[in-house]
Amino acid sequence: MRDVRIAFGGMAATPKRALAAEAALEGSAIHPEAFRAAQQALDNDFQPMSDVRGSQHYRQQAAKNLFERLYLSLLAPDHEVMLHAYAH
What InterPro entries does the annotation carry (predicted)? Predict the structure, then answer.
Protein backbone atom coordinates (compact mmCIF):
# COMPACT_ATOMS: atom_id res chain seq x y z
CA MET A 1 0.00 0.00 0.00
CA ARG A 2 1.20 3.50 -0.81
CA ASP A 3 0.27 6.99 0.34
CA VAL A 4 -1.68 5.62 3.31
CA ARG A 5 -3.72 8.25 5.15
CA ILE A 6 -5.87 7.40 8.18
CA ALA A 7 -7.74 9.79 10.44
CA PHE A 8 -10.25 9.38 13.25
CA GLY A 9 -12.74 11.65 14.92
CA GLY A 10 -13.83 11.02 18.50
CA MET A 11 -10.39 9.80 19.54
CA ALA A 12 -8.86 13.19 20.42
CA ALA A 13 -10.03 16.75 21.01
CA THR A 14 -10.19 17.25 17.23
CA PRO A 15 -10.03 14.80 14.31
CA LYS A 16 -6.47 13.57 14.03
CA ARG A 17 -4.36 11.44 11.73
CA ALA A 18 -3.12 8.07 12.98
CA LEU A 19 0.51 8.51 11.97
CA ALA A 20 1.84 5.32 13.60
CA ALA A 21 -0.94 3.25 12.02
CA GLU A 22 -0.22 4.86 8.64
CA ALA A 23 3.45 3.95 8.99
CA ALA A 24 2.54 0.35 9.86
CA LEU A 25 0.62 0.00 6.58
CA GLU A 26 2.82 2.11 4.30
CA GLY A 27 4.73 -0.09 1.84
CA SER A 28 3.10 -3.30 3.01
CA ALA A 29 0.94 -5.75 1.11
CA ILE A 30 -2.70 -6.28 1.99
CA HIS A 31 -1.95 -8.90 4.63
CA PRO A 32 -3.45 -9.61 8.05
CA GLU A 33 -0.14 -9.01 9.85
CA ALA A 34 0.10 -5.48 8.44
CA PHE A 35 -3.39 -4.67 9.68
CA ARG A 36 -2.69 -6.18 13.11
CA ALA A 37 0.39 -3.95 13.31
CA ALA A 38 -1.77 -0.94 12.41
CA GLN A 39 -4.27 -1.91 15.11
CA GLN A 40 -1.50 -2.08 17.71
CA ALA A 41 -0.04 1.22 16.47
CA LEU A 42 -3.29 2.96 17.39
CA ASP A 43 -2.23 2.68 21.03
CA ASN A 44 0.65 5.06 20.15
CA ASP A 45 -1.56 7.37 18.10
CA PHE A 46 -4.40 7.91 20.55
CA GLN A 47 -5.18 7.91 24.24
CA PRO A 48 -8.90 8.71 24.03
CA MET A 49 -10.77 9.91 27.07
CA SER A 50 -13.82 8.24 28.56
CA ASP A 51 -17.05 10.19 28.65
CA VAL A 52 -20.79 9.61 28.47
CA ARG A 53 -20.53 8.70 24.76
CA GLY A 54 -17.98 5.93 25.24
CA SER A 55 -15.17 4.64 27.40
CA GLN A 56 -11.52 4.84 26.43
CA HIS A 57 -11.51 1.07 25.89
CA TYR A 58 -14.62 1.18 23.71
CA ARG A 59 -13.23 3.95 21.50
CA GLN A 60 -9.88 2.20 21.09
CA GLN A 61 -11.52 -1.15 20.27
CA ALA A 62 -14.00 0.41 17.82
CA ALA A 63 -11.13 2.09 15.96
CA LYS A 64 -9.17 -1.18 15.84
CA ASN A 65 -12.23 -2.98 14.51
CA LEU A 66 -12.38 -0.53 11.61
CA PHE A 67 -8.99 -1.84 10.48
CA GLU A 68 -10.41 -5.36 10.42
CA ARG A 69 -13.33 -4.13 8.34
CA LEU A 70 -11.00 -2.28 5.96
CA TYR A 71 -8.85 -5.38 5.51
CA LEU A 72 -11.86 -7.57 4.73
CA SER A 73 -13.26 -4.90 2.37
CA LEU A 74 -9.99 -4.77 0.45
CA LEU A 75 -9.98 -8.56 0.08
CA ALA A 76 -13.54 -8.67 -1.30
CA PRO A 77 -14.40 -5.22 -2.70
CA ASP A 78 -17.66 -6.47 -4.21
CA HIS A 79 -19.04 -7.69 -0.87
CA GLU A 80 -20.37 -5.67 2.05
CA VAL A 81 -18.48 -6.42 5.25
CA MET A 82 -20.47 -6.50 8.47
CA LEU A 83 -18.76 -7.09 11.81
CA HIS A 84 -20.75 -8.24 14.80
CA ALA A 85 -20.64 -5.52 17.44
CA TYR A 86 -19.56 -7.98 20.14
CA ALA A 87 -17.18 -10.07 18.03
CA HIS A 88 -14.09 -8.88 19.90
Answer: CO_DH_flav_C, CO_DH_flav_C_dom_sf, Diverse_Substr_Oxidored
Q: Pinpoint the alpha helices (H) of 1-88.
A: 19-25, 32-45, 56-75
pLDDT the model gives residue 19: 97
Q: Where are the domains of the chain?
A: 7-75
Contacts of 31 (CB under 8 A, 6+ apart): none
Question: Can you tell me whether residue 70 is helix, strand or coil?
Answer: helix
Residues 27, 12: Cα–Cα separation, whole Å: 27
CA distance 67 to 24: 12
Q: What is the pLDDT of residues 43-84, one digit of tens each?
A: 999 999 898 988 999 999 999 999 999 999 999 888 887 776
pLDDT at 6: 95
Q: What residues contact residue 39 under an 8 Å CB cut-off, 6+ apart?
A: 21, 64, 67, 68
Residue 29 CA: distances (Å) to CA of 20, 26, 53:
17, 9, 35
